[in-house]
Design brief:
Number of helices of chain A: 0
Strand content of chain A: over 45%
Helix content of chain A: under 10%
Largest sheet of chain B: 6 strands, mixed
Shape of chain B: globular
Structural class of chain A: mainly beta
Radius of gyration of chain B: 14 Å
Oligomer: heterodimer
Strand content of chain B: over 45%
Distance between the termini of chain A: 37 Å
């Protein structure tokens, strides 16, 4: 079956621009997670959705970051006024429920120049 | 707060050697889950195992085995008869039932298996 997909795979943007990153979870998975992975580090949690609502957004670094999941399936991570420090691989994962194992997508590599 | 420590930054072995990757965790929750993921050079995280905190039985899957010891807060991963295809970064992770349900990852151990 289809796994978690993320688009685009690569995004290069200029400092100060707005970007949107998309995640399409495994069909039927109610939980969706966003993580950010910097070079040489483990992934760091950003936000977690159970259904349509953000159950935990404590990992978002500041108010430039926002995510939505309006119909409980596809999610979009939005970053305003991008900064060079936002450059990283943004990973999305989904699980059947909050207790299940999380399956990861291939990630979006964001580069802010 | 939860924390996962993987003290080994990088390990290099020769093919067919056994290798153990260490993982130590901290949590205040009484119910939690432990995971191992593999990240090959292609970059995609691959799920290997999930272990419930109530289940301390060791598990074996082919050449892979996991040793969960609650008394020492450790969840170590052993690869027997390593192969070049095992070369990757391995991450240990923790999630809590009552606290943070998202994964808290360690910093990873890079395993290089030389032919």
């Amino acid at each position: 079956g289809a796994g978690v997909s993320q688009t685009p795979s690569n995004k290069v943007t200029e400092k100060g621009k707005y970007v949107e990153l998309r995640c399409d979870p495994i069909s039927g998975h109610t939980a969706l997670y966003w993580y950010r992975q910097s070079l040489g580090q483990g992934p760091e949690f950003l936000i977690y959705f159970q259904g349509t609502g953000a159950a935990d957004d404590s990992g978002l670094p500041n108010d430039r970051f926002f995510a939505v999941r309006p119909e409980g399936s596809v999610s979009t991570l939005k970053i305003q006024r991008t900064e060079r420090g936002d450059s990283a691989v943004y990973l999305c994962a989904s699980s059947l429920n909050f207790q299940g194992e999380q399956y990861f997508g291939p990630g979006t590599r964001l580069t802010v120049t | 707060a939860q924390k996962v420590t993987q003290a080994q930054t990088e390990i290099s072995v020769v093919e067919k050697e056994d290798v153990t990757l260490d993982c130590v965790y901290e949590t205040r929750d009484t119910t939690y889950y432990l995971f191992w993921y593999k990240q090959p050079p292609s970059g995609e995280l691959v799920f290997l195992i999930r272990r419930n905190s109530f289940d301390e039985q060791n598990e074996i899957s082919g050449r892979y085995s996991w040793n969960f010891q609650k008394s020492t807060s450790s969840f170590n991963f052993t690869i027997t008869a390593s192969q070049v295809v095992d070369s990757a970064v391995y991450f240990c992770a923790l999630s809590e039932r009552g606290g943070r349900r998202a994964l808290t990852f360690g910093s990873g151990t890079r395993l290089q298996v030389q032919p």
